Amino acid sequence: MAAKKKNVTDYDSLRQRTQDRDVYMEQQVGRSRIHEKFSKRPRQIFVAVIAVLIFLATYFGVGLIQLGYYAANQAVSTQTQESTSSSGLLSFSAWCDQNGFTEATLGEEYDYAQGFWKGSDFNDHEEFTQEQVEGLYNEYAQAYLAEHPEEREQVLAESAEPAIDYVSFFTPDFLKIIIALFVSSVVASVLYQTLMRQLDAQNLMNTTDDINQYPNDQHIAYPQELQDRFDWFPDVGAHCDVQVTSLISHMMLTNKGLGKIAVPERAKKDVLDSDGDIAVYKGEVLYSDDGETPIYKQMPMIDEAFGDYIFDASNVPKKFRIKYNPSDIDYNPEDKNREKLKGFPKLSDMIGATWSMPLYEPQRPAGAYLVDTSPSNTMV
User: Fold this and answer.
1) Closest of 355, 338, 335, 356 to residue 346, by C-alpha
2) I want to staple 311 with a disulfide (CB 3.0 to 4.6 A). Which of 4, 57, 171, 316 is the partner?
3) Using CA atoms, how far apart are residues 312 and 321, in angstroms rounded to an integer?
4) In which element (H, E) is residue 204 found?
């Protein structure tokens, strides 16, 4: 049966890769897991579909505008220039234009035209006004068409306005195509740029293209890297043999792997003597009857409830509230690190042997500071 594969963290992999070289001079430290970048393809397809829809909408929109313009002009023309009379007779001006008559030839041609002027005295009077000529035309022409209904129908058919060909306004032409291409191109260009900016924002955490990495670059250290590199010192109450020169970071701890310690009991409220005077103030150490021996009780070294209170007071989101198990953290295995205390392979071993609670300290630690012990200057 195959042996169970040990879980290897990112930092374990980093330490194995860099154990034989100067990790602080030449390194490409792995970042948090980088997910696959979002593709441009869906946005490009979306822009293409929108561009086609905008093209079609603009194309037919221009056709509708042309159709509306033509219909409006036709309506105005019908109202301002009456092409037929109520009887189906061509207007005088339209009749003259259709038959090539002018004012100079009007007298001669009217008498010739199908006997319209037969029996009239039109040719005997050369000085007719425009209104008189039109009146004579209407009078004789209506009488003539009344006697010849087949010619009246022919006049109506020839004078009728042609029907609007709606299809012709949507057939391809240069104007509609150019306008539709221009509008769709502008919309597609603006939309494409907007979507690409949105894509860049979504991929911001999934790419390192904006970072130029060089040898000796600084980086955000792994928590395990800090634990290996720096020493530990209790954050509250307890004392330790470690000599601190600078505070680096802080980590909350659990009490796993740590034994209990003797902690003096303290008064939970003021204690009065027989005369009613305060003998022991709230929070002071309680002593036995001899007045010299403190009363102790066994408590865990790490006050995890106090750590939770600190998290709450700092408004730390719950997903970032991490407490480390000191029995799982290497302190100085095989005493390889000359800057740390010797003889403690695990952090829990070091805490149990070197951390102590003086009588005057009222609060147990909730975690520990990661500290530098080498000679250094600290800039605040």
Assistant:
1) 335
2) 316
3) 10
4) none
